[in-house]
Write a structure and sequence with these properties.
The chain is mainly alpha-helical. It has two domains: 2-70, Multidrug-efflux Transporter Regulator, Chain: A, Domain 2, CATH 1.10.1660; 93-242, no CATH class. The chain is built from ten helices and five strands. The protein has helices at 2-8, 12-20, 38-52, 57-68, 73-84, 97-104, 110-119, 137-148, 153-187, 194-242, and strands at 28-30, 33-35, 93-95, 122-124, 132-134. A three-stranded antiparallel beta sheet has the order 3-5-4. A two-stranded antiparallel ribbon has the order 1-2. Strand 4 (122-124) and strand 5 form a beta hairpin. Helix 7 packs parallel to helix 9. The longest helix has 49 residues, at 194-242. It starts with a helix and ends in an 8-residue tail after the last helix. 11% of the residues are buried. This is MerR family transcriptional regulator. Keywords: DNA-binding.
Length: 250
């Protein structure tokens, strides 16, 4: 066991854990001696590769179980790829200090930079510490436009934090919905071709979630702006009446 762990680049404790989780087949035994071979080493290297791809040990156990029962691991990996494909299409932007100043002027303060880091809007470029990387060109452009219109950057960042909370809740809603009705009903007994059909379904659902949120937000903005406009007009009318003492006599 120690020799196998060393060859695989893991600890003996990790190897024992894999055996307990049935990720590794038992060794061939001769008396009290346990013999591990090339197949065990190959399995450990496969586990390491899948972990690097972001699989959990539970997911790896499912793949190994599928392979051992003759199911198509390629289909399962295709389904995993469809699930893990990023939903966002955001383009990160690398910014030098002068570019930040061009976009936000005097609002580039230590407090605002700390808030942007905390939200996850920006990160320090490890290879070029003098620059920062903004997570999204669209968010960067929208933030800069709001600042140009007179909204303080601190308020933009506070609004971004609040929006993040709401969209996380929306993502939870759609994730639970898709898992309950698209993935879970077929996940435990995938028939030939079922994983491919599920992957195709996920591709079709991907834009639908965005469309629902966009439509609902647009309609909500219509309702909220109309209510705000009505309140503003009412306040103006009441202020005008109060400033004209003769209005009641007329």
């Amino acid at each position: 066991m120690a020799e196998l762990a060393k060859e695989a680049g893991i600890t003996v404790r990790t190897l024992r854990f894999y055996r307990e989780r049935k990720l590794l087949p038992p060794p061939r035994r001769e008396g009290r001696i346990a013999w591990y071979g090339d197949a065990h080493l190959a399995r450990l290297r496969t586990i390491a590769a899948l972990l690097e791809r972001g699989h959990t040990l539970g997911g790896i156990a499912e793949l190994i179980g599928a392979w051992e029962s003759g199911r198509d691991v390629g289909e399962l990996l295709g389904l995993e790829s469809a699930i893990a494909t990023p939903w966002s299409e955001e383009t990160p932007v690398r910014l030098a200090p002068e570019e930040l100043a061009d976009s936000f002027g005097a609002d580039v303060t230590a407090e605002n930079l700390a808030a942007a880091l905390d939200i996850g809007y920006i990160a320090v470029d490890g290879e070029h510490p003098e620059t920062v990387v903004h997570v999204s060109r669209r968010l960067l452009d929208a933030s800069a436009a709001l600042v140009r219109e007179g909204v303080p950057l601190s308020e933009v960042l506070a609004a971004g934090r609040a929006v993040r909370t709401h969209v996380d809740a929306l993502a939870d809603l759609f994730t639970v919905l898709i898992r309950a009705h698209v993935i879970d009903p077929h996940a435990h007994d995938l028939t030939p071709g079922e994983a491919a059909r599920m992957a195709e379904a996920l591709d079709r659902l991907r834009p639908l979630a965005k469309n629902v949120v966009d439509a609902e937000l647009s309609m909500a903005m219509d309702r909220r702006v109309r209510a705000e406009l009505d309140a503003w007009l009412k306040e103006r009318a009441e202020a005008g009446a109060a400033s004209d003492p003769g209005a009641d006599d007329a």
